[in-house]
Write a structure and sequence with these properties.
The complex is a heterotrimer. By secondary structure, chain A is mainly α. Chain A has one domain: ABC transporter involved in vitamin B12 uptake, BtuC. Chain A has 11 helices and 2 strands; from the N terminus they run ααααββααααααα. Chain A is globular and about 60 Å long. Chain A starts with 5 loop residues before the first helix and ends in a 13-residue tail after the last helix. By secondary structure, chain B is an alpha/beta fold. Chain B folds into 2 domains: about 200 residues, 3-Layer(aba) Sandwich (Rossmann fold), CATH 3.40.50; about 150 residues, 3-Layer(aba) Sandwich (Rossmann fold). In chain B, the strands form 3 sheets. Chain B has a 7-stranded mixed β-sheet with strand order 7-6-8-9-10-14-15. The radius of gyration of chain B is 24 Å and the shape is globular. Chain B starts with a helix and ends with a helix. Chain C is mostly helical. Chain C contains 15 helices and 4 strands. The two termini of chain C are about 20 Å apart. The relative contact order of chain C is 0.18. Classes of the chains: A mainly alpha, B alpha/beta, C mainly alpha. Chains in contact: A-B, A-C, B-C.
């Protein structure tokens, strides 16, 4: 057994950061949708997978990764808009469980639809040529693309933060997350805002899917385990808290990465152990507001 | 909701009502289930075939069905059992042991199958086997497992046409350790398949004095193996033995390539899956060495493989059979060959014939060992070819073939058979 | 529910009175006809087992209003408790069933102690997360559970029932033994719903604040219901262990939790018969569709979405409503 040298630790942290980046994006979208619409989106993993498959299709046609990164969020944003408009919005006021159940059914449909269109087996997905190489960090090769994932996630989160903090629409989102009634009183079309928020959350999931595709290829089931783990991330961070999603995503990435050195077989379990620990100490999650949970 | 509302105003059931219901139910039960329609004078020989058509191994399973059907058609075309035809009853196990067990019960109890074959997953075959042995139905399993050879799961109704991890790793280790080095790290999925493969490698490794630097067990559903790579690299092994399968295999190799692991060590797999390699393309698999039960390229040296491939090509538009598909062919064909020899479908007679069978149906000589009904057969060592060849199916280079007499199984005594 | 609804209910009462009065009996009748309407007997047994599982889930979701997405932990926990009792300790089948039921209750007590403090969607996610951790735990504990290979050898050949030996490998005998046990469990469920506890459960669902004001211990009621629900789920799991003579790790999978949610909603949450109808319909959908397409999940998912969108009361719920309306128009 190799000793846990400082170099090894540093590398594990870097790997964990890259791993956490995908969680951050997924949890961010989940939390955004939950914070505004109080909808737990069980189709989020399927949207993530669809994003990757859209990228796969675009890459097949054009061979351009950057085009994939631009197309997938747009396509999935539109799909998300439609899903909210035609499937989720009729359920508002019918009990908080119904959107959850609907999106659960939807995820089955989407996964199977992808199996029909693209086949049951997965496909490889190459990193863009410009990022295909690796850099030497502490005597180890580290894929350039993973560093790019970390940087891209940082950029996306920063952009979203600026968007939420500094734009008028961001103001509406923040107000709506606190109290939708305020928006109604101010004469804002809440339904439209919700549709846009849902579309935005879906688009972020798609972006996560595109970023993850070169790491592990694409398969119809790629969203299944990610969904549950992203739920854990949002619970740890506090549901509806965007800052919480970011921090908890990174935290989970690091915990998995470090457990993988010490006791690899417990890597998956460590995520749930972390959640149980957080719940015992702070039932509303690290940054959650207690009131939100009723 | 109305029903809920009305409940409170009424009392519970009286004891008499319950008793009445029970008696009524028992009376109905005595009649039995729908009667089985009496067959014609020559009812077909029925073979249940349960494979995971739904799910991630759907394409492998479909090839198993194609191959099994080929065996049935050949049997029927050559006259069947004195004119009596065979038929294959295909069921979808959905890759779930529960579903497979339910379907096997259905095949036995309702379809009254004479034999069962199939499965693609250790847990599924063990669940099916547990049922067939209770119902005393012959089952020929076509998926890797060591457990099925062991007395706890084995019964005289159990046959295992697939390779088992011990034989596979014996051949692969025998090839790899002297050539690539003795300092070894294992990366394995934390379940039976990984454990059995690793145990096998260590067993053969003892002969070559390998040094196991670490045994890293990754949990099921791991999608990012890069978390293990810094440590693996720090251990500086000569050989990294990866024991995962299917999709895990694809991702591991992709990520290992990205992390430049191949530049520092040789990567060895117990089983290189033909279909997985075909799906992923050459880059990730380049330079990786592993074992397999069958590769169509064997046709250059083995006449039976040539015949099998040609029949398959003729039946399925020029394609070639896969490794796991070929198990489906052999698994069904050995049963039917034994039926013909026995002249009946009576289970005990067929078992006796199968135990005595020496056959060469697609890959060279094979036979079922007496104590555990394991098919003793050759193991192929292959290496993934680098560039896309002119033939899209040409993905492996056969490095070595370990014939049945060069493959070491756990002895019957070792397994606990007297 | 509103007053108008209540009058409709009162009017429609007459037709449904016999079924409502003898609801456990009616389910038993359903159980008795089942083998004749299903394509094969193992499917009928599956419907029985999943019907009971869904009925247990329904106690929590339909009657108390808590949506659990981790019921696989209770079902699988029961299956493993039964399997381990028989395989590792050589206990007889009835002890396996008893331990399965207790196992389901014990696990629900553990999960419930934490989870019932939360509500709504949060409850769903936390039960899901705990069920996942149990899945990974069972995966690790190979010495006990057999890990991914599953626990084999839950083989019961003969069953001595009041000195009456039954051949358990005979499908007919097995079905009727299972049917009798499920019938008894349903009788117990019916009793619970008719008991004062049943009244409190519904009071908590309808209006939690009012129930609390009436002096009921809401937290204890929730935990108690969760534990009872776990008992039924555990028994169902134990029955499955006996039926399939193996316990697979899939019984603890997230998909199993999703399945019971789908079945219950399809049949009609909050109705006594709904879960059985849902289990039967779902099993038949799966069986029929998977005959002509491997993509049956698409249809199952789409049907489920249609129910959530347009028929949230489920098949049985609408049958009840439709019959009431007919009754109402006839009497007016």
């Amino acid at each position: 057994m190799a000793a846990l040298t400082p170099e090894l630790l540093a590398l594990q942290l870097l790997v964990g950061l890259a791993l956490g980046a995908i969680y951050v994006l997924l949890a961010f979208g989940l939390s955004l949708i939950f914070g505004m619409l109080t909808v737990v989106n069980f189709a989020h993993g399927a949207f993530y997978m669809l994003g990757a498959y859209v990228a796969f299709a675009v890459a097949g046609l054009t061979g351009n990764f950057w085009l994939c990164l631009a197309c997938a969020p747009v396509v999935l944003g539109l799909i998300g808009y439609g899903v909210e408009r035609f499937l989720v919005s009729p359920l508002y006021g019918r009990g908080i469980d119904y959107p959850l159940l609907l999106t659960f059914g939807l995820s089955y449909v989407l996964v199977e639809a992808v199996r029909i269109i693209f086949g049951k087996q997965g496909y490889p997905f190459d990193s863009p040529a410009a990022l295909a190489g690796s850099v030497e960090i502490l005597g180890n090769y580290f894929p350039l693309y993973r560093l790019f994932v970390v940087a891209a996630t940082g950029t996306i989160v920063l952009a979203l933060w600026l968007f939420v903090e500094w734009t008028n629409f961001g103001l509406i989102i923040r107000a709506g997350a606190r109290d939708p009634e305020i928006l109604r009183v101010l004469g804002i079309d809440v339904g439209r805002v919700w549709r846009l928020v849902f579309a935005l959350g879906t688009a972020i999931a798609a972006m996560a899917g595109v970023l993850a595709a070169p790491l592990q290829g694409v398969t119809p089931e790629m969203g299944d385990s990610m969904l549950i783990e992203s739920f854990v991330v949002t619970v740890v961070g506090g549901m509806g808290s965007l800052g919480g999603a970011v921090l908890a995503g990174l935290l989970v990435g690091l915990v998995v990465s470090l457990t993988s050195v010490v006791a690899p077989e417990l890597a998956k379990l460590s995520i749930y152990a972390l959640m149980a620990a957080v719940l015992l100490i702070r039932p509303q999650g690290l940054f959650g507001r207690a009131g939100l949970l009723g | 909701m109305p029903e809920r509302r009305s409940q409170r105003s009424i009392g519970g059931l009286t004891r008499r009502q319950v008793l009445g219901a029970a008696l009524g139910a028992a009376a109905l039960g005595a009649v039995g289930f729908r009667p089985r329609t009496a067959g014609a004078a020559q009812p077909p020989i029925r073979i249940g075939f349960c494979v995971p058509l739904t799910g991630p191994y759907g394409s492998e399973a479909q090839d198993q069905v194609r191959c099994a059907q080929l065996a049935v058609r050949e049997f029927n075309a050559s006259g069947g059992l004195n004119g009596r035809k065979a038929e294959l009853l295909v069921r979808d196990s959905k890759l779930s042991p529960d579903e497979a067990a339910t379907r096997t019960l259905e095949l036995i109890e309702n379809e009254h199958v004479d034999f069962v074959a199939g499965s693609l997953s250790a847990s599924v075959q063990l669940a099916v086997n547990n049922i067939t042995k209770q119902h005393r139905i012959l089952y020929n399993s076509i998926s890797q497992s060591d457990a099925i050879n062991e007395p706890k799961d084995f019964s005289r109704y159990t046959f295992h046409e697939a390779l088992n991890p011990t034989m596979t790793t014996d051949a692969v280790g025998r090839y790899a350790f002297p050539r690539f080095g003795k300092r070894v790290v294992f990366l394995l999925p934390d379940y039976a398949y990984g454990h059995e493969m690793t145990r096998g490698f260590k067993r053969v490794g003892k002969e070559f004095g390998i040094e196991v630097l670490s045994e890293i067990r990754h949990p099921l559903g791991t999608t990012d193996f890069s978390v293990f790579f810094p440590r693996i690299r720090a251990l500086k092994p000569d050989v990294l033995v990866c024991c995962n399968f299917g999709r895990d295999q694809q991702i591991t190799l992709k990520q290992a390539t990205d992390f430049g692991l191949k530049r520092a060590m040789k990567i060895v797999y117990p089983i290189l899956l033909y279909t997985a390699r075909l799906a992923v393309g050459p880059r990730a698999y380049q330079g990786v060495v592993g074992g397999t039960s069958y590769y169509w390229g064997l046709e250059k040296t083995v006449p039976a493989a040539k015949q099998f491939n040609d029949r398959y090509r003729a039946a399925y538009g020029g394609r070639v059979p896969s490794d796991y598909g070929a198990f489906g062919y052999a698994g069904v064909r050995t049963i039917l060959a034994s039926v013909r020899q026995a002249g009946s479908v009576e289970t005990d007679a067929v078992i006796r014939r199968m135990e005595a069978l020496h056959y060469d149906f697609y890959k060279g000589p094979e036979y079922y060992r007496a104590c555990d009904h394991q098919a003793v057969q050759s193991v192929l060592i292959v290496e993934s070819k680098p560039a896309p060849a002119d033939n899209q199916f040409d993905v492996f280079k056969i490095l070595e073939v370990y014939g049945p007499n060069r493959v070491h199984l756990r002895s019957c005594r070792e397994l606990g058979y007297s | 529910m509103d007053l108008i609804g209540a009058t409709a209910v009162a009017r429609g009462w007459r037709l449904w009175e016999p079924i409502a009065r003898h609801r456990a009996l009616a389910v038993m009748l359903f159980i008795a006809v089942l083998p004749w309407v299903t394509p094969y007997q193992a499917l009928a047994t599956n419907i029985l087992i999943y019907g009971l599982f869904a009925a247990g889930f329904n106690l929590l979701y339909g009657y108390l209003g808590l949506l659990s997405f981790g019921h696989a932990a209770l079902f699988g926990g029961g299956a493993y408790a039964c399997g381990i009792a028989i395989v590792r300790f050589g206990l007889p089948w009835y002890a396996g069933l008893a331990l399965g039921t207790l196992g389901g209750m014990a696990i629900s007590l553990l999960i419930g102690a934490l989870a019932t403090r939360t509500r709504g969607i949060y409850f769903a996610m936390i039960t899901l997360a705990f069920a996942q951790s149990l899945y990974y735990l069972a995966y690790q504990a190979q010495g006990w559970t057999g890990g991914e290979n599953g626990l084999r050898g839950v083989n019961v050949r003969r069953v001595e029932l009041f000195f009456l030996p039954l051949d358990f490998t005979d499908p007919v005998a097995r079905y009727w033994l299972m049917a009798a046990l499920v019938g008894l469990a349903l009788l117990a469920l019916s009793r619970i719903l008719n008991s004062p506890l049943g009244a409190v459960i519904e009071a908590v669902r309808e209006n939690e604040a009012r129930a609390r004001a009436c002096g009921y211990d809401v937290a204890a009621t929730r935990l108690m219901t969760f534990v009872l629900s776990g008992g039924f789920a555990g028994l169902a799991g134990a029955l499955q262990a006996l039926e399939l003579s193996t316990v697979s790790i899939e019984t603890l999978d997230y998909a199993t939790s999703g399945l019971v949610v789908m079945m219950t909603l399809l049949g009609g949450a909050g109705t006594f018969f709904g879960p059985f109808v849902g289990a039967a319909v779902f099993a038949l959908i799966q069986d029929v569709f998977s005959l002509w397409t491997v993509h049956w999940q698409l249809l199952a998912g789409a049907i489920f979405m249609l129910f959530v969108l347009f028929l949230p009361r489920g098949i049985w719920g609408y049958l009840l409503e439709w019959s009431e309306q007919r009754q109402a128009t006839q009497s007016s």
